[in-house]
Design brief:
- By secondary structure, the protein is of the alpha+beta class.
- Helix content is 32%, strand content 22%.
- A three-stranded antiparallel β-sheet has the order 2-1-3, with no helix packed on it.
- A hairpin with a 2-residue loop joins strand 1 (61-66) and strand 2 (69-74).
- The protein is elongated.
Amino acid sequence: QKGQCVTSFLLAVLSFISVLSPRSPLTSTLPLVLILTVSAVKEAYEDWFRHKEDKKMNETEILCYREKKFQKVQTQEIRVGDIIKTVQNEFFPADLLLLQSSGPKGIAYIETANLDGETNLKMRRGVPATYLVSAHPCDEYPQKLAAVIQSEPASAKMSEEDGWNGLMMGLRVDAR
């Protein structure tokens, strides 16, 4: 399509030179202008729709650990290092490291349909040192952990083998 637009543009420019073109400049430029206008309107509509969806997602409330308890905050307020609590079948931001799950051995099943279009559930496992820590009472769980996390860059692939790749250094776990 890009090649067709460039060709149409060149023909439109040449049509303004009366010695080279027997056609009216209008017949050469009108289709090009029409195509570019329709494309621009379509792109603007898609950008507007994407903006509305992003705003809606950014204003979604989620439980975040702040001031020694879990509080509802908008997802746009989440920062690196925040601890997030979700419940079953609840939306959560994509870029999270699973620490704890109510499932056996820290296993959680997540749906990534809004990222990759796949509706099948993907299995993710919490970091072993963190899912073994008692999560009761849940407001005390984050106080039992301290670590420096070094992470690989995010992967575009969302397959079973991919997920978090990184290293937890200086992990301190208080098993009380």
